[in-house]
Specification:
Layout: H1 3-23, E1 32-35, H2 45-72, H3 79-107, E2 112-114, H4 115-148, H5 153-156, H6 159-184, E3 188-189, E4 194-195, H7 202-206, E5 209-210, H8 214-247, H9 253-261, H10 264-281, H11 290-314, H12 317-330
Parallel strand pairs: 1-4
Antiparallel strand pairs: 1-2, 3-5
Length: 331
């Protein structure tokens, strides 16, 4: 049921076929790949293009508006909104690494991507994806300090401390992106060059790799990713456990509501982020069609980024009020 088990089963089945293929005819190393994710929907590609383009543009405009509002509004120059601005930047860069290429492939009959471009896409998608997860964890810590230790908030969340948390989040994402990409692309790809996905992702690439070290590298990559995501998830859960315990000690219902309202947008985004991730990585083992894998892949590459600015703008009263002010001032 876990991502590690899935990777293990994939690699064990592939070791036999990969070793056998290398012992056969002389195979040349693959220098480019074919992204065949949406090839099973030939009559729906134009509809997907229009839908994903509109969602991508909405995501861009929403996040740019959030960043502009936080930049222009002095009342939002607080740690929580600094982290939100950094998260918006990471989300824009994450989608930029994936969506433009996906949109181009939906209109093209040639879906080839060279090895270096594939490696670059994997590096940037993992870097910004994990940066996003680390920033969500930092935002959870910020809410914990604000509610559980309000008297020490200005000390623990000083400008220097906040800047360090953001820098470490970006550094952590970059390290994981570099580790994963370096591990995957030191493998030899031979035989078929068709990636059964619309993005250069780890699992479909492992199916194309050959050699005796595929299993070891796959388990290492799976362990790194799983540990990082599980660590983020546990830290967020721990933060909210302390938050709930503190809120339950507040005597008035108004105090409860005020405390929970400051966490609503972040908690909703955490549920969406890890909910879609669990659908992808904790799905039951068994044969999956290319159509199902492709549609499930859009949940974390298209739908989660699309929902993010909606969640943070609609469920945060201060931000929503400031965004309205920003829009009205432009007119």
């Amino acid at each position: 049921m876990t991502f590690l088990h899935t990777v293990a089963d994939l690699c064990m089945s592939h070791l036999t076929s990969g070793t056998a293929s290398m012992q056969g005819a002389n195979l040349s190393a693959v220098t480019e790949f074919i992204l065949s994710g949406f090839s099973t929907f030939p009559h729906l590609q134009l509809m997907f293009f229009l839908l994903f383009l509109l969602m991508y543009l909405f995501m861009l405009l929403g996040n740019l508006l959030i960043m502009a509002t936080i930049w222009r509004e002095p009342s939002l120059h607080m740690p929580m909104y600094l982290f939100l601005c950094a998260r918006s930047i990471s989300e824009v860069l994450y989608t930029f690494a994936i969506t433009p290429r996906m949109l181009a492939d939906l209109l093209s009959t040639h879906h080839t991507i060279v090895l270096m471009a594939c490696a670059s896409q994997m590096f940037f998608s993992f870097t910004f994806g994990f940066t996003h997860s680390f920033l969500l964890t930092v935002m959870g810590y910020d809410r914990y300090v604000a509610i559980c230790n309000p008297l020490r908030y200005n000390v623990l969340m000083s400008p220097h401390g906040c800047a360090c948390l953001v820098v470490w989040s970006w550094a952590g994402g970059s390290i994981i992106g570099l580790v994963v990409t370096s591990a995957i692309f030191q493998l030899t790809f031979c035989g078929s060059n068709e990636i059964h996905h619309f993005v250069c992702h780890v699992k479909p690439l492992l199916k194309l790799a050959c050699g005796e070290n595929v299993f070891t590298l796959a388990m290492g990559v799976g362990l790194v990713c799983f540990t990082a995501l599980l660590g983020c998830c546990l830290l967020i859960l721990l933060s909210y456990a302390f938050i709930v315990a503190t809120i339950l000690r507040i005597p008035s219902a108004e105090g409860w509501h005020k405390a929970f309202s400051t966490c609503a947008s972040h908690l909703t985004m955490v549920v969406v982020h890890y909910g879609f991730a669990s659908v992808i990585y904790l799905k039951p083992k068994g044969p999956q069609s290319l159509e199902v894998d492709t549609l499930m892949g859009t949940t974390y590459t298209v739908f989660t980024p699309f929902l993010s600015p909606i969640i943070f703008s609609l469920r945060n009263k201060e931000l929503k009020k400031a965004m309205k002010k920003t829009i009205l001032n432009k007119h």
